[in-house]
Amino acid sequence: MKNSNSFKASFLPKAMLLGLLLASFYGISSTNSFSKFYNSSSHIDDLEQLVCEIQNLNELKRDASCNELLPIQLEINNLRNRAFGKSAASASALMMDPMALCPEIQSIELIDVAGFASTDRLVICGEPDTLAFVIFIEEPGEILGAQMTVSFESGMQYAGFELTHYDGTTISNLNPDPIKPEFLLEGITDAIYIAYIGVEANCDADINGLEYRVDLEYNFTYQDTFGNIQTCRQKAEPARVYNSTIKQPIINYRSVSNTNINGLSQEYCRTIQISQDGIDAYLQELDFSICGIDLDNELSLTQTLV
């Protein structure tokens, strides 16, 4: 091979690389059989440079003197060893890391997109809301089945319902654990896949002490366009932090002075004003207690009104 400029691509498949090295080893002069190139990572570029250097040294050998032949050949041998070492390391990495064959599963949360549900307000001790995720892969191929595990921080939990937006896709619950529910996803690569999952902030939520995120973990079976099947496992953490979405009720009441009862057999009434002042929050119920009153002897509680 007399033209080292023909090595311009950034990847040579293993068989092609071995062919180049053998051609270099035996001094074969041909570039036509290696005209197809591919893309790869930077460490393959170093391998390509080694092959080119071997080619150049073989050219020098033809015109070298007897004293020059030995150092040139030693350098060629050194470069060959390095090239074969890089080739073996690359092949070994692919063989030992089956996850390298898995596509990256993408999870994007829908936020305030017209026509779709989204999580816009979670109230502590309040009604549930809906998480909405678009789930897809960019690579060609098919996901034959997928299981998704959703992990919540303490105070944020699964609300017991799930569904998908489009026909031809399904989601079903496999484990109703409130903090770490599991779901079966079907149809991810058959159509646009949008999953809705019920979520709520329970009464233990602490938006000042914890950072509320949602962690997703996928276990799925992937089949590429050649029919190869691979079992894959991946984790994802959507970027959203939910602390500003979780609203906290705040209870206030006006102070009440002591009540003096001046006569027996008379009914006295006191009005206590209670308000919920948390921004965008609400209360469905609350516990109200009156302390320090002896209702076992002279006094009795006749009624309470709200």
The secondary-structure class comes to alpha+beta
Summarize the helix and strand pattern as letters: HHHEEEEEEEEEEEEE
Q: What is the number of helices?
A: 3
Tell me the β content. Answer: 25-35%
How many β-strands, per DSSP? 13
List segments where confidence is low: pLDDT < 50 over at least 5 consecutive residues.
1-45
Q: Taking all residues together, what is the mean pLDDT? A: 77
Can you describe what's shown?
The protein has helices spanning 14-26, 42-63, 66-96; strands at residues 105-109, 122-123, 129-137, 142-152, 156-164, 170-175, 182-186, 193-201, 214-223, 229-236, 246-247, 251-253, 274-276. The protein is built from three helices and 13 strands; from the N terminus they run αααβββββββββββββ. The chain is an alpha+beta fold and 306 residues long. α1 packs antiparallel against α3 (66-96) and α2 (42-63) packs antiparallel against α3. It is 22% helix and 27% strand. The chain has a five-stranded antiparallel beta sheet, with no helix packed on it.
